[in-house]
Specification:
This protein is α+β, with helices and mostly antiparallel strands. The protein contains one helix and two strands; from the N terminus they run E-E-H. A two-stranded antiparallel ribbon has the order 1-2. A hairpin with a 6-residue loop joins strand 1 and strand 2.
Length: 58
Protein backbone atom coordinates (compact mmCIF):
# COMPACT_ATOMS: atom_id res chain seq x y z
CA UNK A 1 0.00 0.00 0.00
CA UNK A 2 1.34 3.40 -0.96
CA UNK A 3 0.88 6.11 1.64
CA UNK A 4 1.15 9.85 1.00
CA UNK A 5 4.29 11.65 2.06
CA UNK A 6 3.35 13.50 5.28
CA UNK A 7 5.54 16.44 4.26
CA UNK A 8 3.74 16.82 0.92
CA UNK A 9 0.50 18.16 2.38
CA UNK A 10 0.96 19.82 5.74
CA UNK A 11 -2.49 20.69 7.06
CA UNK A 12 -2.75 23.01 10.06
CA UNK A 13 -4.64 21.38 12.91
CA UNK A 14 -7.25 23.73 14.35
CA UNK A 15 -8.54 21.55 17.19
CA UNK A 16 -7.70 20.99 20.85
CA UNK A 17 -4.73 18.71 21.46
CA UNK A 18 -6.91 16.14 23.25
CA UNK A 19 -8.66 15.46 19.91
CA UNK A 20 -5.45 14.58 18.07
CA UNK A 21 -4.38 11.08 17.14
CA UNK A 22 -2.56 9.20 14.40
CA UNK A 23 -4.07 8.48 10.98
CA UNK A 24 -4.98 4.80 10.72
CA UNK A 25 -3.35 4.60 7.28
CA UNK A 26 -0.18 6.74 7.28
CA UNK A 27 0.29 7.58 10.98
CA UNK A 28 0.30 11.34 10.35
CA UNK A 29 -1.15 13.44 13.17
CA UNK A 30 -4.79 14.37 12.52
CA UNK A 31 -8.04 15.13 14.34
CA UNK A 32 -9.30 11.67 15.28
CA UNK A 33 -11.67 12.49 18.12
CA UNK A 34 -14.48 14.93 18.86
CA UNK A 35 -16.78 16.71 16.44
CA UNK A 36 -15.31 16.43 12.94
CA UNK A 37 -12.87 13.70 13.95
CA UNK A 38 -11.92 11.01 11.45
CA UNK A 39 -9.64 7.96 11.66
CA UNK A 40 -7.96 9.13 8.42
CA UNK A 41 -6.00 12.32 7.73
CA UNK A 42 -7.15 14.65 4.95
CA UNK A 43 -4.68 13.21 2.41
CA UNK A 44 -5.64 9.57 3.09
CA UNK A 45 -9.34 10.41 3.15
CA UNK A 46 -8.99 11.99 -0.31
CA UNK A 47 -7.05 8.97 -1.61
CA UNK A 48 -9.66 6.53 -0.29
CA UNK A 49 -12.49 8.63 -1.74
CA UNK A 50 -10.77 8.70 -5.13
CA UNK A 51 -10.28 4.92 -5.06
CA UNK A 52 -13.94 4.37 -4.14
CA UNK A 53 -15.09 6.59 -7.02
CA UNK A 54 -12.80 4.76 -9.43
CA UNK A 55 -14.15 1.39 -8.25
CA UNK A 56 -17.79 2.48 -8.46
CA UNK A 57 -17.36 3.97 -11.92
CA UNK A 58 -16.13 0.83 -13.64
Amino acid sequence: MVTPDPRAEAVPLLCPSDQLGRCARCQQTCQRYGVGGNPLCVACLAAVGKAQQKGAGG
